[in-house]
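Chapter summary example: a protein plus adenosine-5'-diphosphate.
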Amino acid sequence: MPVNFLTTPIDYLSGVGPSRAELLRKELGIMTYGDLANFFPNRYVDRTQFHKINQLVPETAQVQIVGKLMSISTAGAGKATRLVATLADDTGRMELVWFKGQKYFKESLKVNEVYVVYGKVSRYGAMYSIAHPDVELLKEYRGRQQNSMTPIYPSTEMLTKRHLTNKYFVRLMRQLFSEIKAAFVETLPDDVMRDQQLITKNAAMQEIHFPSSTNGLQAALKRLKFEELFFIQLELLLQNRIRKTQIKSFAFEIVGDHFNNFYNFNLPFELTGAQKRVVKEIRADMANGAHMNRLLQGDVGSGKTIVAVLTCLLAIDNGFQACIMAPTEILAQQHMAGVSELLAPTGLRVALLTGSVKTKARRIIHEALEDGSLDILIGTHALIEDKVKFLNLGVAIVDEQHRFGVAQRAKLWKKNKLPPHVLVMTATPIPRTLAMSLYGDLDISVIDELPPGRKEIKTVHRYDKNRLGVFSFIKEEIQKGRQIYIVYPLIQESETLDYKDLMDGYESIVREFPMPQYQVSIVHGQMKSEDKDYEMQRFVEGKTQIMVATTVIEVGVNVPNASVMIIESAERFGLSQLHQLRGRVGRGADQSFCILMTGHKLSAEAKTRLETMVETTDGFKIAEVDLKLRGPGDIMGTRQSGVMELRIADIVKDNELLAVARNAAINFLQEDPAIGMEKNINVRRVMAHLQSRKGLWKYIS
Ligand code: ADP
Ligand code: MG
């Protein structure tokens, strides 16, 4: 436990005072000495380096320049008033600009003096400028003892406005550390410290705020990141253990006739090795009375559906019902069609429940569910409505879970005395270590092998002006009997505009591909669901050759004869979405293509996305690039997961360290499962502190 005075309220620190204390609490959540010590810099600058003005380039971030102040004057009028100074070194001139505190700077800065200025450069025309630079007379700068690494603390608009500058925080830290001395108790076990060659907590805390050298700083960062990740992993592992030992579910002890007959006589194809392995994992997991909570990852087209069906059969063989939830109506329908076809020879009862099922049909489903005559219910969110009551739901399969909120998933649990087993399927590949830290309390199965005979989808990037070439390519493919998707973006904020784009696109396609030679379908969100179904169905049956659509066809839709995916305004899609869309083709034996259409102007990030798509079809590689571009929260839509609120480690950049920390945590628990050994008292204290919030601690003793 931290020594007592780390819990001292921040008000007592010299240099704080009541109003600043209030600000620190409100803006940064800093209540105590300890909180302040744990307020880490988010970067460091090397203030021993200087730039010359003629070396500046637009990408230069923070720079430090020595120059003479040539002039200073007020420019602009009214709200646009600003203070502008010219700074010159022996290579050129640049501007310094102030919008705030103009009076102060105008009075205190002296023309013809030499200053050290520091800040972020931007360029207007040919002139570089720094707005609100740090300025210091060269002679004062020289008089100060220069530390090579200056920590830069995170700030907020309010802090800046109230003049709680970086300098203030540096001073405050100095004050804090002189008062608390070496107050930080070690939190990690000795052997872990030794194995990982970590510096002590005390040394790391000192070094993170007052780096003595680059190496010292690196050691501190490593130590503190490791510590953070280690305790998160420990927590996740404990949660997982608790789930397995404390949360009971049904034991599917037998593998019965439904499963065996289907497996031996009705499988339409031989399972891939990966599918077999995953089915085995699921079977073992559901057999022992512990609750299964498993994430099944498999790239688009890897064959998750059959795994879902076999999972349902295991439940049914043991006298239970099963359900499959999908994020959209179309997907639910596709599952319904696919599953009923697969199970047709078995005589099992499967029903579809979506928002558009009529009251009367709905009532029949409700009854069949409650009297147990219905074996499998497939549907959308409609499945979690209160009226839907299973007689005995044994397993819930959730397809494309990132569309379902955590709360919605929990609702499924309410229907039973015991929670049903849960299998979450996703085609969004999540790098394994990330998956572990996001869903550390889930077990993970991966289908990492595509069914045999698939050809790699050829992907190209084309500009709008090449459209005619693309059209003639489409014609050739249609001639060969193939079908084509043309997808338009639909982004909530500009729905009407997007809708117009889609309709314009549709009209030009119809002009280019006229009836009766060609048939074009259209599906979008503003259509009635019967109409959508009708159009979708025509395309599935091959009655139309082209499907113009918004992203409603993104996930799951399966038309093996479709071999070309054209994505319009591809720069507007995220990587994982592009990957999902591309996965709609390449499902049959033919060579498939994906054409990414864009305008000429592309942001650097959009270019990276397009290049990545052209380069690889490996979902995991794509996920990693996506992760780097967007950060983990956006990808999962699970910012609320809490695990992501890291103080110092970065789940993307520190991926390797995360794996190391996880292994260390696994080994640690193996040696001391109850965290009861004398030598691990430190760890026990930290865990007790972390878990007191969550009420988990009672399970560990
Ligand atoms: P996804 O994982 O994207 O849901 P699906 O389950 O829809 O993939 O399977 C994609 C296609 O591959 C389907 O047409 C399915 O019938 C076929 N498929 C799945 N597994 C195999 C296999 N082992 N051998 C051959 N084809 C398979
Ligand atoms: Mg699927």
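Key point: The CA atoms of residues 240 and 441 lie 5 Å apart.
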